[in-house]
Amino acid sequence: MTHRSRRLRRRTVAASVLTLGLLVAVSAVAVNAFELRDKLSNLERKIELLVDPPPDRVIAAAVRVTPEPEEVEEDLTADPTVAPSLAAGETAPPAPTATPRPQKVKVDVNLLKKPDKWFISQLDKESCAVAGTQMVLALHGKGDLSESFQHQLERRIDEWESRRDSLNGGWGPSAIVNALEAYGVHGYEVRAYDTRGLALRDAARSISKYHAPVILLSWRGAHTWVMTGYRADGDPLAFKSAKVSGAYILDPWYPRVSTIWGASDRPGTYQDAAEMRRNYLPWKRPEGHYPDRDGLFIAVVPTQALNR
After folding, report:
1. Which residues pair with 217 in a beta bridge?
2. Residues 239, 108: Cα–Cα separation, whole Å
3. Domain holding 149: CATH number?
4. N or C: which end of the chain has fewer CB atoms below 10 A?
């Protein structure tokens, strides 16, 4: 049976069960329609998973990124006043010219001058990964920002989903990588970090090196942010210890308001350190255990230059 027919089957069964539930719940609709709708939507999803769970496809494990060593300091143990001994007739070689070190100055980097031009909102509350993937594809010149293209992307999830990527089925970070590959954007990989600072520095370094956006898994892995730039106290390509203070973000949730996370910000908003601490949190999903992600900061990072 094809993925598409499997999904059609489980939705048909789920719809049949829900029809019975709706007949029982008609009287409650007038009392709290929105709450009931959400509960029924969650019930339908649970029934879908029972009828036809996502396939147990093998996926690439998240690449664990460890802290880079600090920059190599000058060798201060040698005494510069002591010249090397020379044999008779030898002349001292010319002193090597010291390579000047780059000056550590604050940097403000953003790939986008007009972030509104590269933004599309997610079409429903569960499509943040779809919209985030769509924006990255558009930035690489491999897709557009139409609603029809977002629907097309969403419908293809059966090709990429795996319970190892999302125990609930549907989109996880590995599915994002597979979708990008399917449309010709190669080289993205899922990475995991012990600290937020390390994650942001690696993301900033990738943005500057490849001129390509990074996808951050925010809200403990429940949401997708597209990071297009950053501010730091130094160039992260030149200074391995550079501290990234915040990031420029395209948030697919905009212009919605979350009852948990609050109002979303318009495209290209700079999220400072406080906002990153509030939103970009270690992976922790209620549906179960993810061995290579739990307790870590997760990002989908480019390893090749922007295609466009």
Report:
1. 224
2. 15
3. 3.90.70.10
4. N
